[in-house]
Write a structure and sequence with these properties.
By secondary structure, the protein is an alpha+beta fold. The protein has three helices and 13 strands, in the order ααβββββββββββαββ. Strands 1, 3, 4, 6, 9, 10, 11 and 13 form an eight-stranded antiparallel beta sheet that branches. A five-stranded antiparallel beta sheet has the order 2-5-12-7-8, with no helix packed on it.
Length: 255
């Protein structure tokens, strides 16, 4: 019996030894690892394709690098909040030093993209080809209007609603989202040709200096501003209208 048990044990050991070795799979990487490939996350909001196309961010979400207050005026109305440029509301019975925020860079022909949201009863705008030769940004720079269309106090003309070329050209469609929601805008300026886009819809198109433009100017508030719309190269300007407004994802592509 002992001999028989010994023979069976030898056969079992031989059988196990002859089985093919099973390869083990290395454990998966720890999902909480802090090591991330530089290629997996692109800094900022611009895609690699946009960067390749020539887009350049004008706001890094952290600092006002590349911006200054118009004519270097004293200011306490702008702050960086949660990755946005935030224009604070007017402080009743407080100290208010207000001014527009203007790019250091000068631009002639370009596409500009920016996201924005407005406060209840708020009013603001984005101007282009602004010159600090004048006392106010709007004395030279045409304005892409931003406003609470429904809640702004007082009567608004069509040329004062969101997306309009302020006091000159009416937005062809009401494409703005409700107050408090983010909107995506695009401004195209190429020579004398200008386009306003709002949430994917082209709402304004005009030619600076054309017969139609001059006719509209003569019956607008800009008839009293001799330098309006004549600057060929200037700054991008975010308007401080003493109301709360937020901007983010601001980028420009020279044309």
């Amino acid at each position: 019996m002992k001999l028989r048990a010994f023979i069976i044990s030898i056969l079992m050991l031989w059988f196990v030894a002859c089985q093919p070795r099973k390869e083990t799979t290395p454990p998966a990487a720890d999902s909480t690892s802090t090591t991330v490939s530089k290629d997996t996350v692109a800094p900022g909001f611009l895609s690699e394709q946009q960067k390749a196309e020539g887009w350049v961010a004008l706001f890094d979400g952290k600092t006002t690098t590349g911006w200054h207050f118009f004519k270097n005026k004293e200011n306490n109305s702008w702050e960086i909040s949660d990755g946005t440029l935030h224009c604070k509301p007017f402080i009743e019975n407080g100290t208010n030093h207000r001014s527009d925020l203007t790019t250091d860079g000068q631009y002639e022909n370009f596409e500009l993209i920016f996201d924005w949201k407005i406060s209840v009863q708020g009013n603001s705008g984005v101007m282009f080809r602004v010159s600090e030769e004048f006392d106010e940004p709007y004395a030279s720079g045409p304005e892409y209007q931003i406003i609470d269309d429904e809640g702004y106090p007082g009567d608004l003309k069509d040329v004062q609603l969101t997306g309009a070329n302020y006091d000159m050209h009416v937005a062809s469609a009401k494409a703005a989202k409700p107050v408090g929601e983010w909107n995506e805008s695009r401004l195209v300026v190429n020579g004398n040709h200008v386009e306003h886009w709002l949430n994917g819809t082209k709402v304004v198109e005009y030619e600076l200096g054309s017969a139609d433009w001059n006719k509209r100017r003569k019956v607008s508030k800009w008839k009293d501003f001799p330098g309006y719309g004549l600057t060929k190269k200037g700054s991008i300007d975010l308007q401080d209208h003493s109301h709360e407004v937020w901007f983010k994802n601001i980028a420009i592509k020279p044309l």
